[in-house]
Amino acid sequence: MKHRIVILGGGTGGTLTANRLRRLYTVAEAEIVVVDQDDHHVYQPGLLFVPFGLTHTEDIVRSRGRQLKDGIVFHQSAIDHVDVAANEVHLADGEVLPYDVLVVATGARLAPEETDGLTG
């Protein structure tokens, strides 16, 4: 039986997870789909060099699809909602992705206003 793995988030965590799963499972064994709302993957370690003028932001941004191994599908869309009972991800573009395994790798959201004294 072919498994369907849907990964929400195409950042570093989602990309690494997808690529490692592809090494573990052949295309015949598992379909792997990565969903993200944009197609701009930032090479985060490169951000260290931007303030010093050693590189520019546009030099460390790549297409998300380009970061994924062959046999991984990249779907560019925002997520509308996840129907856990039906094992389905509903996307903003109307697509519905059924899954056997769901990986949520949507990253962190900075919220300095939620930490007393952090904003000044």
Kindly report the oligomeric state of this protein: single chain
Mean pLDDT: 91
Which percent band covers the strand fraction? 25-35%
Inertia-based shape: globular
In total, the number of domains comes to 1
User: What is the first-to-last residue Cα distance?
Assistant: 56 Å
The succession of helices and strands, N to C, reads EHEEEHEEEEE
**At CATH's second level, what is the architecture?**
3-Layer(bba) Sandwich
- The CATH homologous superfamily is named FAD/NAD(P)-binding domain
Label the structural class: alpha/beta
In total, the number of strands is 9
CATH topology: FAD/NAD(P)-binding domain
User: How large is the radius of gyration?
Assistant: 17 Å
Biggest sheet details: 4 strands, parallel
How much helix is in the residues? 10-25%
Low-confidence parts lasting 5 or more residues at pLDDT below 50?
none
According to CATH, what is the class?
A: Alpha Beta
Q: Can you tell me about this structure?
A:
The chain has 120 residues and is of the alpha/beta class. The protein has a single domain, classed as FAD/NAD(P)-binding domain. Helices cover 14% and strands 33% of the residues. It is built from 2 helices and 9 strands; from the N terminus they run E-H-E-E-E-H-E-E-E-E-E. The protein has a 4-stranded parallel sheet, with helices on one face. Strands 6-7-8 form a 3-stranded antiparallel sheet, with no helix packed on it. The N and C termini lie far apart (56 Å). The model has no long low-confidence stretch (mean pLDDT 91).
